[in-house]
Design a protein that fits this description.
There is one protein chain. The protein is built from five helices and twelve strands. Helix 2 crosses helix 4 and helix 2 packs across helix 5. 25% of the residues lie in helices and 33% in strands.
Length: 238
């Protein structure tokens, strides 16, 4: 993948889309209108973190398997952090956590064509690298520097991510869906123990079991019933 560095830009995702780029990683020293999940903005101190986007064309995937792209991107971020000695987990569907704090956010926008195949997958990632302090209105953030106590070379971190993503993408091409799912499941934030959640009915205690078809989150309640949740239907109480 080619790397294109821009000093300042409103949104790397919008730039990749507008320029119709593929297999080019666009990263910005300063992104002024970065987007996260649920329409949130991604706030980042200029030249301290990684804010980047890229697009791939996984035409070998049916639209029904699009959550697998989310899984491999999340795993690639976890793999990258591990290279630098930082253990992390995946807060479903694709936020990356160190302990109870968020170190990275991922935004994935899929384009599907009429035959039920992928046209393009646009990936945007914000990874907190060297930032030391954050605005009080940002909930539970952490950076690589805060976690590991070291200053990191931002370009080196990006290059390691690209290598990690290429390996995970190759794994997906090889149809290793079960191995990808098993690894993703093993890394789910707060998996296997009872914690507080909330849904449209109110708060409850549940235990994350894993993900089901199309990436739904499976939570076992204290009465042993299992609930399935789509994105935005359930919230962690942290």
């Amino acid at each position: 993948m080619e790397i294109l560095h821009l000093d300042t830009i409103e949104s790397t995702n919008d730039f990749v889309r507008k320029e119709n780029l593929c297999d080019v990683v666009v990263y910005a020293g300063n992104q002024t209108k970065g987007r996260g999940q649920r329409g949130n903005t991604w706030q980042s101190e200029p030249n301290k973190n990684l804010t980047f986007s890229f697009a791939v064309q996984p035409t070998f995937l049916d639209a029904s398997r699009q959550f697998e792209m989310s899984m491999i991107v999340s795993l690639a971020v976890v793999d990258t952090l591990s290279i630098f000695g930082i253990d992390s987990t995946i807060k479903w569907p694709n936020d990356i956590y160190v302990g109870d704090k968020k170190i990275a956010g991922i935004l994935i926008e899929n384009e599907i064509v009429g035959n039920g195949k992928f046209s393009r997958c646009l990936v945007g990632i914000g990874l907190n690298v060297n930032q030391k302090s954050f605005s009080e209105d940002i909930p539970n953030p952490i950076s690589m520097k805060q976690s590991a106590g070291s200053i990191f070379d931002i370009l080196e971190v990006l290059e390691e991510f690209i290598d990690a993503f290429k390996k995970r993408y190759a794994q997906l091409k090889e149809n290793s869906s079960k191995a990808i799912l098993d690894k993703y499941t093993s890394l789910l934030f707060r998996r296997g123990e009872f914690y507080e959640f909330s849904d449209k009915e109110g708060s409850f205690k549940g235990k994350i079991l894993g993900v089901g078809d199309y990436g739904v989150l499976l939570i076992q309640r204290q009465d042993n019933t299992i609930s399935e949740y789509q994105f935005k239907e359930v919230a962690y109480i942290i």
